[in-house]
Amino acid sequence: MSDKNPTGAEGTEKAIPEQSAASPEPILKVEGLTKHFPIKKGLFGRQTGAVKAVDGVSFDVRAGETLGVVGESGCGKSTMGRLVTRLLEPTGGKVEFEGHDITHLSAGRMRPLRRDMQMIFQDPYGSLNPRHTIGGIVSTPFRLQGVTPEGGVKKEVQRLMELVGLNPEHYNRYPHEFSGGQRQRIGIARALALNPKLVVADEPVSALDVSIQAQVVNLLDDLQSELGLTYVIIAHDLSVIRHVSDRIAVMYLGKIVELADRKSLYSAPMHPYTKALLSAVPVPDPKRKGVKSERILLKGDVPSPISPPSGCRFHTRCWKATEICKTQEPPLIALKTGHQVACHHPENAPDQAPGEAVLPEARGSVEVVSVTKTEAAAEVSPEAEPVAEAAVDAETPEAAEPESESEPESGSTSGPDSTVQESTDK
Ligand SMILES: Nc1ncnc2c1ncn2[C@@H]1O[C@H](COP(=O)(O)OP(=O)(O)OP(=O)(O)O)[C@@H](O)[C@H]1O
Ligand code: SF4
Ligand SMILES: [Mg+2]
After folding, report:
1. Which residue numbers in the chain have pLDDT < 50?
2. Which of 16, 120, 348, 393 is deepest in the core (most CB within 10 A)?
3. Residue 291: its pLDDT value, please?
């Protein structure tokens, strides 16, 4: 399925499987999913508010496809992953797995389903018990499910170790005796032990060195082809997401703001937030040598999920915001076949609220810098480096700060759709 070169370069990402376009029933269906973590204060633990970590998210995942989920730190990606695998109890909404409503199943009734639905955790260090050997860790799912594989547990665990590229002779070693990449493989072996149908992988490569990231990404790819897995892959790195995903959901402050197939999203993003995120991704394409490109730097802090902004949650950082954006939440609707967006004034699509004037404060909400794409691309060598730099993190206010502070050469700050302010020419 993949050509083993997850650099983000044109033509190197995973081919979209034929079936993803017209697969019959989704394996996972999520409707209006919500998780509000209560904030309690005082002696009696009175609830004073809630962290709206996931706030009305709907999507489905078809059998055999990979849905990538991307967004800034704290936007609710991990919480969403834990909700769909029912490691967390949702506050509201519905989760259906293979047509069965599992939203409020008890732990006991979820147990048989755990075989089909597994999670690879964000932290490969913290998710492995340091006192257990690898053999013990990977065989845990068999123990919990009371399953004895043909040939015995040890033989099966060693087969799994081999499958993910670990030496089966290291069965009795402890987690600290492995590298980060090997520990991530241990997590993958454990997730695959019971031959699941759906795997939710939370930042499966973000804790790894760039040189190891490609190996793990390619491993996930190979396992999907070999075992027919369905993935939800959560990441903040748009280059990783581009390589692994068939469709992509972009999250902002607990909501999905755009959901589309990979090609459509990368070639014609509709949500201004997606456009800003994508502008930071290096494009290592020799054909675009010397081509200038805009990089959109969002200003202002990411608002708190305790009291998110009214209307469109992105309006405090959006250069296109109008009065309606402050008051009316845009629904997530399909503006093209298979391309959903939640925006009153989308890019690359008809304006949903024409005639509105851009708010004066919106004009200063971003800075646009001009970059020469090949120079950005040079950061990622197509031969050597597997995965480009973390793109979303580069858009966090902290990361953007130094560039935002650089003196503009001329003119005042303007939005990407109007006159481009070239403050830097890297
Ligand atoms: N158990 C919890 N109790 C209270 N708040 C929580 C809890 N878990 C997560 N949150 C909050 O919910 C929000 C979303 O957290 P989450 O871990 O889902 O984000 P994320 O998108 O995965 O971030 P990252 O990219 O940093 O992993 C954050 O504001 C976080 O502080
Ligand atoms: S144009 Fe309005 S609705 Fe669209 S992202 Fe900006 S603030 Fe939100
Ligand atoms: Mg997370």
Report:
1. 1-11, 16-22, 375-426
2. 120
3. 66
| CA 396 to ligand 3 centroid distance, Å | 15
Amino acid 395: pLDDT: 34
Domain count, the chain: 2
255 lines ligand 1 (CB under 6 A): no
Distance CA 187, CA 120 (A): 6
The three-class DSSP label of residue 34 is strand
Residue 417 is assigned to a structural domain of this protein:
no
| Statement to judge: residues 250 and 274 lie in one domain | no
Q: How far apart are alpha carbons 33 and 255 in whole angstroms?
A: 10
Same domain, 359 and 396: yes
Q: Rounded to the nearest whole angstrom, what is the distance from the C-alpha of residue 54 to the centroid of ligand 1? A: 9
pTM of the shown model = 0.83
Ligand 1 binding pocket includes 78 (Cβ within 6 Å): yes
The CB of 236 under 6 Å from ligand 1? The reply is: yes
Do residue 249 and residue 273 come from a single domain?
A: no
Choose the residue to mutate in 77, 122, 240, 307 for probing ligand 1, maximizing ligand atoms within 8 Å of C-beta.
77
Q: Which of 273, 318, 327, 417 for a ligand 2 pocket mutation test, highest count of atoms within 8 Å of Cβ?
A: 318
Answer yes or no: is 424 within a domain: no
Q: How far is CA 86 from the centre of its chain?
A: 18
Clarify whether residues 194 and 343 are in a common domain: no
CA neighbor of 220 nearest in space, from 185, 247, 190: 185
Ligand having the closest approach to the CA of 54: 1
Q: Residue 126 CB: number of other CB atoms within 10 A?
A: 10
Containing domain of residue 331, as a range? 269-405
